[in-house]
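Example record

Each entry pairs one chain with its bound ligand, zinc ion.
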Amino acid sequence: MSSGARSGPRIVTNTVEFPYRRSLGPVIGTFVAALARGQILGVRSGERVLCPPLEYDPDTGAATSGEFVAVGPVGTVRSWTWVSEPNARHPLDRPFAFALIQLDGAGTSLLHAVDAGGEGEGAMRTGLRVVPRFRAEPKGRTDDLAYFVPEGAETTDPGVVDGATLAAVGGEPRAPLEPVETMEFWSSLTYKEALSAASERYARSLLAGRLLGQRCPTCAKVYVPPRDFCAIDGIPLNEGDDLALPDRGVITNFTIVTPVKYPGQKETEPFVRVSVLLDEVDAPVGQRAGENDLPSPARRPGSEGAEGQRTGENDLPSPVRQPGSEGTEGQRTGENDLPSPVRQPGSEGAMMGLQPVVDVSNEEVRVGMRVEAVWLPEAERNADELGNRGWGSASGAITGWRPTGEPDLPVERYIDRVF
Ligand SMILES: [Zn+2]
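C-alpha cells for the complex follow.
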C-alpha cells in the first residue's frame, strides 16, 4: 500500500492477490507443452486450423479433431491496441501492444503481446508481420510464449529466445509431447480508497507517536482506532470524542502462531500475537483531544486522596485493589500523569488486537503481563499499512509491545476480556 499527498484525503492502495491452480485439458495442455519446444500448435477443425487450439469449434460447437498442426512461426497482426503504461500484471514492463495475431497456417487469431521495439507505437500497424519470442527457460505455462516482435527485429531481452533456438536445446530426437496437466495462476485485484476522516486522524496521531482512540459518550466504550460511530449504540461519533490513549497496557489474551507455508507468508518461526488492554485514559498521556471532556472517575466522600497517587510519588500505576479501598484510588487529571489500570465505573478500556511483541520469548508471554509500545523513530514511521478496517493496527509506527517489568496483574480480572 502507499499513501497519497498529505493535503487531500489520504489515498491507500490495496492489493488482494491469491493463486489458484487449473487443469488445462488435453488440447491446451498439448499447446502449452509445445511452447516449451519453441513451437506453436493449432488444432484442425474441419477445413481450418484453430490457433489457439480449442476442444470445441466456436462456430459449430463440434469437437475438434485432436489433430495438432504446427503453425507460424511468422504471423500477421490483424488488430491491435497500444498499452503505454503497463501495470505489474501485464506481460511486459515496457510499453507494448496487445494484438490479434493470425499465425501462418491458422484460420483464427491468437491474442498476444507485441514488443514493437524502439519505434514503439509507431512500428505497429495492421498487417505487420511478427515472430514469437519464447522464455529461454520454459516453465510449462502459457506465458512460455513471451511475446511477439516485428519480423527481423533484434531482441536484446536476455530472458527470451526465438523458436529455433529453443527447439535446438536438448537436441533431437525428443520425447513425445506429454500435455501439461495443471497450471498455477495468480489472481490479483488492486483497488484504492480514501481514508475516512477518523482513520486519517489515527494515521496522523501514529506518525506523531501517539495512540488515538474514541470514546462513546453513551456507553463509555473506547474504540481504537476511532471509527466515528459506536457499533453498540448505533450512533455517530466525531472528532470531539477522540482521546489520546496511553501506550501502556496489559496482555489479556495471546496466540502463538505456527506458520504454515502459503503464498506471501514471510514468517518461518512460531510467533505470538497479543491483545493489549490499554491503561485507563482518565489521565491523558501526551496529547489531549480538545479539553478533557471525560467524566471524572467516581469518587466517594471521604476518600479524597486516601490512596491517590501524586506525580513523583510513584511512577507506576497501581495494579492491585485493596479490600475496602473500593473507589478510593480515583485520580483526577493533573493529580497524576500516569493512567491507572484500575477500571473505573462506567469506563471501558481500549483493546488493541493482534499485536506483535518484542524483547520477550513466546514462552514468557502471559495474560496479565504489563507491556508498553515500542515506537519506531519518528523519521521511520509510516501509515502505509493503514486502511479503514482492522483491529487497530499500528504497524509502521509501533514495532511491538515489550514487558515493562512491572508486576503482573491478576489473571482473573481479564477472564471476560478476550478481545
Ligand atoms: Zn456506545
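Confidence is low (pLDDT under 50) at residues 1-5, 283-347.
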